[in-house]
Amino acid sequence: MDIKGFIESSLLEWEGKIASVLFLPGCNLRCRYCHAADLVLRSEELETIPPDVVLSRLRRQVGWLDGVVITGGEPTLFGDELLALIRDVRRVPLQVMVETNGTRPECVQRLMEDGLVEAIAMDLKAPLGPEDYARVAGTGVHVEDVRRSLDLIKRSGLSYELRITLVPGLVGWQEVQRMLPDLEGARQVALQNFKPELCLDARLRTLAPFAPEELDAFQKAVSQVAERCVVRGRTCAGAASSRAR
Ligand code: SF4
Questions:
Q1: Which of 149, 164, 176, 243 could form a disulfide with 102 if both were Cys (CB 3.0 to 4.6 A apart)?
Q2: Could you tell me if the CB of 13 is within 6 A of ligand 1?
Q3: Is 29 in the pocket of ligand 1 (CB under 6 A)?
Q4: Model pLDDT for residues 155-176, shown as the tens digit of each residue
Q5: What is the pLDDT of residues 196-233, one digit of tens each?
Q6: What is the DSSP letter of 169?
Q7: % of the chain with per-residue pLDDT over 90
Q8: 30 CB near ligand 1 (under 6 Å)
Q9: pTM as predicted
Q10: What local confidence, expressed as pLDDT, does residue 1 receive?
Q11: Are 194 and 149 in contact (CB under 8 A)?
């Protein structure tokens, strides 16, 4: 398995922790707002970092680094290779968080059953219906797999975060309202404001992100069903001052 990106330390990816971030290539989705086009579409053009190099750099950071976030692309596509990489990271020793789109519940289950992760972050792209999901994910998605991952994560007892990217005209007020039943009882939901720059779908690049007062309304709605709801990207450049929902 190729590692295609490595951030030595970040305070942003794992809330409350100083973490390294590893990027794995490839994804089975083509989300219209995706910013990882290089990883998703042309990862062969990116430099490969050998796992031994990453592991030795991690060993040098033990003592002040809390953990490692493994993201992509979609890391669960690597199955057993991902599990082996995580075991190597845990032997460093460091804690692990995996970020996933939830389309590989069998891998999510293994991560939990084998005690390989301290935390999981899972994207929810849209209300859990095939048409809604395909509209956002840019490809057909077996939404029952996403639902299975969601149920596994909510029941896991692990620290977790469900992430929703808000996109005007794509994932807005109506969609969030329809997602609320699936967010019921969630420990943490992160609402991420859409960033137009570098979107996979060029037609989204001229859209204004949601304005702060709109984000407040989303947060209020989600807070009524989830234990905690955080908002990221309140200050996105070009946010509309107001928008009819
Ligand atoms: S799940 Fe979507 S946003 Fe995430 S890497 Fe894949 S295409 Fe990009």
A1: 149
A2: no
A3: yes
A4: 999 999 999 999 999 999 999 9
A5: 999 999 999 999 999 999 999 999 999 999 999 999 99
A6: T
A7: 94
A8: yes
A9: 0.95
A10: 83
A11: no
In the three-class reduction of DSSP (H, G, I as helix; E, B as strand; rest coil), residue 179 is classed as: helix
End-to-end alpha carbon distance in the chain:
44
pLDDT per residue as tens digits for the range 41-55: 999 999 999 999 999
* CB under 8 A, 24+ apart: contacts of 40-43: 40/73, 40/200, 41/200, 43/2, 43/4, 43/73
- For 203, residues 6+ apart whose C-beta sits below 8 A from its C-beta are none
pLDDT-derived band at 234 (thresholds 50, 70, 90) equals confident
Out of 28, 33, 40, 71, mutate this one to test ligand 1's pocket (max ligand atoms within 8 Å of CB): namely 40
Closest-CA residue to 162 (of 174, 149, 175, 143): 149
Measured from the CB, is residue 150 less than 6 Å from ligand 1? no
